[in-house]
Amino acid sequence: MSNQHLPSVQTMHLSKKGKGFWWNLKKRFLLEKLYSPVGFAVLALLSLFIAVGIAKFGVVFGVLFLVMVIGLPAVYCVVAYPQFGIITVLIMAYMLFMLMRIGVSGPIGIVMDVLQFLLMLGLLIQQRKDSNWAVLKGPLSTWILIWLAYNIMQVANPFTEARGAWIYTIRSVAVVMLSYFVFLYNIRSVAFIRLIIKVWLVMSLFAALYAAKQEYIGFSDVEEAYLHSDPAIASLLFIGGHWRKFSIFSDPVSFAYNMSMSAIFCIAMIAGKRKLWKKIMLGILTLSFLVSMLYSGTRGANVLVPAAMVLFAILNYNRKVLIFTCVAAVFLVILINIPTGDPNLARFQTAFRPNNDDSYNLRKANQKRIQPFILSHPIGGGLGATGTWGQRFAPNSYLANFPPDSGYIRISVELGWIGLFIFCMLMFTALKTGINNFYLIKDPELKTYCLGFTLVIFAYNIANFPQEALVQYPSNIYFSMDMAMLTVLLRLDRQKQQQAGIATDEPLLTN
């Protein structure tokens, strides 16, 4: 039956079928309600109300009104439309420190916590309606829950001298990983995966260009004030007469690692089947990320791309990959040994000669010194016992003055060798899932994505040895997304195969 034979009400209902939230908002509210004499009168009264409120109560009234008008609809959108919330979180993770630096007032960091809480709330609401817990099960999900539970239990660690530090560190170390389940449940289409990848690469390009601005034009007034606000900052960022660049991130290390991960993913995309102009664009992006990475002066990031390419060559062993690997190896050897007066390239070269570096030798000595403590404390000295939080809550303790430097060393010291075992099992399970799914996935596009995310997870594990790579935004959020993608991609591939009538030996909704 055609629509013209239906009653008018039913026809209107069908015409709106498939329309989203924004379509309904525009049609029902803006066009049908406000675009009328009554609507104009309401707007006039509202404007008068705002003017009187600000005149009587000051700017606080205006801020509260904006929170009500903008904040409440935003909260609704994040909970009711999780894909909108996911994109918002991914963008905010990149822009968080930039917003702080340009002077946006308020607890910006708490905004990320609120967004993640709202996404988890939306997930629970959806599960109450759908009751589809199977999609959230699997070995990787199990180890994430074990890791989260172990970190929560650390609040009762009898050996800790900085118990208050637990409150400040549990979020970045463990709770952020709950976003894994949000990504796992709500990423349900290839189109949305493409959008996520585009958002990621666009944000990375923006960060790379901003670093180039810092390198060739200079720092902003706010950044200059920050660099000279504390002698300790200058001692870390001013090396060899050259300032290390941090772009829109909190520090050069976080910036360099994110540039490396974006470059690795682009290389994996170039290896896939796609049009020539897209490969050229990906090549330009890769070059941009790698060059901007050098501006950071972070030597630990320089080894990530070559290391990831080793796994890339193993997983994609063929004649073309072998030739590419050999050419890349020759180029790398030349780059490491070529004489140069460029401070960025010179610092890059030192990354491949660690034994000649005083800071690396100092780290080795510190790690050797702390080994007896690790062996004698199986559950560690408590979450947040080392570094900044340890100095704040237990300044006279043994661990407060120990510089962990490495993510794995921090886990060993604060959570003990039991915590290190749990974390290593989690990382092993993630890599095993990625490698297995790479060979199981049939669709070429999804297979390429799986390769890219697996390489990124592998590189993050290497990066976590010389530095703490997984506790700072945006790395912690994107790492959780990378792990979720490994399972999501296999699930979408199974769905494609089932739709095509191809039998599969594995369950559809497991990881």
Please tell me about this protein's structure.
- The protein has 2 domains: 22-130, no CATH class; 134-499, no CATH class.
- The two termini are 44 Å apart.
- It has helices spanning 8-15, 21-34, 37-57, 59-80, 82-101, 108-130, 139-153, 165-173, 179-186, 190-216, 221-227, 231-237, 252-271, 276-295, 299-302, 304-315, 319-337, 343-350, 358-376, 387-393, 407-440, 444-463, 475-499, and strands at residues 238-239, 242-243.
- A hairpin with a 2-residue loop joins strand 1 (238-239) and strand 2 (242-243).
- The protein has 511 residues and is an all-alpha fold.
- 72% of the residues lie in helices and 1% in strands.
- It contains 23 helices and 2 strands.
- Mean pLDDT is 82; it is low at 1-18.
- The longest helix has 34 residues, at 407-440.
- A two-stranded antiparallel sheet has the order 1-2.
- This is O-antigen ligase family protein.
- It comes from Mucilaginibacter ximonensis.
- GO terms for molecular function: ligase activity.
- Residues 286-424 form the O-antigen ligase-related domain.
- It is found in: Membrane.
Q: Which segments are poorly predicted (pLDDT under 50) over 5 or more consecutive residues?
A: 1-18
> How many individual domains?
2
Give helix % range: over 70%
Rg estimate, integer Å = 26 Å
> What overall form do the CA principal axes indicate?
globular
Number of helical segments?
23
